[in-house]
Amino acid sequence: MVIIEDKLGLVRYNADQVSHIKLDAAACRACSHQVCITICPAGCYTLSDDSEVLLSYTGCLECGTCRVMCDHLEWHYPLGGCGVSYRFT
Ligand code: SF4
Ligand code: SF4
């Protein structure tokens, strides 16, 4: 059985200084589905206690799923040398 937390433990990150994903706070407040919270495989999106959508970009796997699913995101790859790197062991 594949345990996603085990797989995520093999991933290494070199966090960019600034987020490569930008949220539109007004759009998030008006969003009826907040699908980003459920579709991100790394759990980068969460809800705060006062129901604001929060993003932790440093754990992003750069899979692009949120980019495809949400029209309100600004999304680009991190600067060269930054972001995720995978180990296939
Ligand atoms: S799906 Fe997009 S607009 Fe909706 S809460 Fe998530 S980031 Fe915001
Ligand atoms: S690109 Fe993938 S891993 Fe990164 S925040 Fe979006 S859904 Fe999550």
Topology readout:
Layout: H1 4-8, E1 12-14, E2 21-22, H2 25-30, H3 36-39, E3 45-47, E4 53-55, H4 65-69, E5 74-75, E6 83-85
The chain binds iron/sulfur cluster (2 copies).
Key words describing this protein structure:
binds iron/sulfur cluster; alpha+beta; 4 helices; two-stranded antiparallel sheet; single chain; Alpha-Beta Plaits; 89 residues
How many distinct folded domains? 1
**Class of secondary structure makeup:** alpha+beta
Report the β-strand fraction as a percent range. 15-25%
Task: Describe the sheet with the most strands.
Answer: 2 strands, antiparallel
Give the names of the bound compounds.
Answer: iron/sulfur cluster
Work out the helicity level: 10-25%
How widely separated are the two ends? Answer: 16 Å
Question: What integer value in Å does the Rg equal?
Answer: 14 Å
Tertiary shape: globular
Average pLDDT number: 93
Second-tier CATH architecture: 2-Layer Sandwich
CATH topology: Alpha-Beta Plaits
By CATH reckoning, the class would read: Alpha Beta
Low-confidence segments, given as residue ranges, are none
Order of helices and strands: HEEHHEEHEE
